[in-house]
Structures are given as structure tokens and as C-alpha cells.
């Protein structure tokens, strides 16, 4: 199983950025944990991060025909990028949306996700474990 993990804008600043909200672990630490979980689950992981909407869209398009699933944290784009939503909707690849924080108990503008409706589901609020849970649930979905 080949899975693309996409991190949206400002997630490269994890470990520095608003630690009380997003945790102490650095972006690199979290990526190591994602790769480790992938190894345990026999999932090949490719990790991609961009702060640029169009680059994320291009990456989603590239996944067409090459990846079995996508795990995406669209970060702030979650709340307003119809273009990323349409990209996910275009490629016909099962996608899980993840968030480190629980977006439903934060500011009002964060409670709305325009991308979640084109995903299998959303995992929000478990810190970096949201990514690991997404990988596990992909495996469960595949085997069910
Ligand atoms: C986030 C939540 C978003 O509202 C925010 O813009 C982010 C990170 C999260 O993982 O909790 O950048 O996606």
C-alpha cells in the first residue's frame, strides 16, 4: 500500500509554533513517527509539505494512479480552499483529513472544513497521533 502524507502551510514550524496547541514535537520528529508507523503497518509512505496551495494541488494530481490513499492535514487551507477540496475530489483516491488540534473546539472559523466532505473521514484532536490513527484506519478499511 502506497500512501501520500501531505502537510499544509506552517506545519513545517511544528515544535516551534504554538506548542501549547500543537505539541512539543518537531516536524522532523513527527515525520519519523509517521514513517515508523508505516513500517509497522507495511505501508510505504511518501511525505510532502508545502506552504503553497497550488503545489499541494499539483501533488494531489500526481498521486493519481500512483498512490492508494492520501492522508492530508490541509492546515489553514482546510477552512477555505475550494481548490484543494476539488483536487481531492478529482483524483478518486481515498483520503483522510487529519488535524493535530481539535478544530471543533477552537475559534469559530476553524470549526468549518471545506475539505472534509470529499474525504472518507476526519481525525482531529489527537496531536501527532492523528496521523498515526489515520494510517491505522486506512489499513482497517482496506482489510474490512
Ligand atoms: C491544524 C488546524 C488548522 O486550523 C490550523 O490552521 C493549522 C493546523 C491542525 O493540525 O490542528 O495550521 O490543521
From TrEMBL:
- Assembly and interactions? Homododecamer.
Record Pfam families: DHquinase_II
Query: Where in the sequence is the active site?
Result: 22 (proton acceptor), 99 (proton donor)
Q: Where is this site: Transition state stabilizer?
A: 17
| Annotated EC | 4.2.1.10
Protein known as: 3-dehydroquinate dehydratase
| Residues given in the record as substrate binding sites | 73, 79, 86, 100-101, 110
This protein's pathway: Metabolic intermediate biosynthesis; chorismate biosynthesis; chorismate from D-erythrose 4-phosphate and phosphoenolpyruvate: step 3/7
User: What is the protein's species of origin?
Assistant: Anaeromicrobium sediminis
Amino acid at each position: 500500500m502506497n500512501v501520500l502524507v501531505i502537510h499544509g502551510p506552517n506545519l513545517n514550524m511544528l515544535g516551534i509554533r504554538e506548542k501549547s496547541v500543537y505539541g512539543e514535537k518537531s516536524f522532523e520528529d513527527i515525520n519519523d513517527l509517521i514513517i515508523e508507523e508505516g513500517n509497522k503497518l507495511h505501508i510505504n509512505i511518501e511525505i510532502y509539505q508545502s506552504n503553497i496551495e497550488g503545489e499541494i494541488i499539483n501533488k494531489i494530481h500526481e498521486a493519481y494512479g500512483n498512490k492508494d490513499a492520501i492522508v492530508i492535514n490541509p492546515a489553514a487551507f482546510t477552512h477555505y480552499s475550494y481548490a484543494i477540496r476539488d483536487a481531492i475530489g478529482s483524483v478518486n483516491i481515498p483520503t483522510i483529513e487529519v488535524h493535530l488540534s481539535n478544530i471543533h473546539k477552537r475559534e469559530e472559523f476553524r470549526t468549518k472544513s471545506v475539505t472534509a466532505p470529499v474525504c472518507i473521514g476526519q481525525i482531529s484532536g489527537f496531536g501527532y497521533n492523528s496521523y498515526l490513527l489515520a494510517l491505522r484506519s486506512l489499513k482497517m478499511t482496506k482489510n474490512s
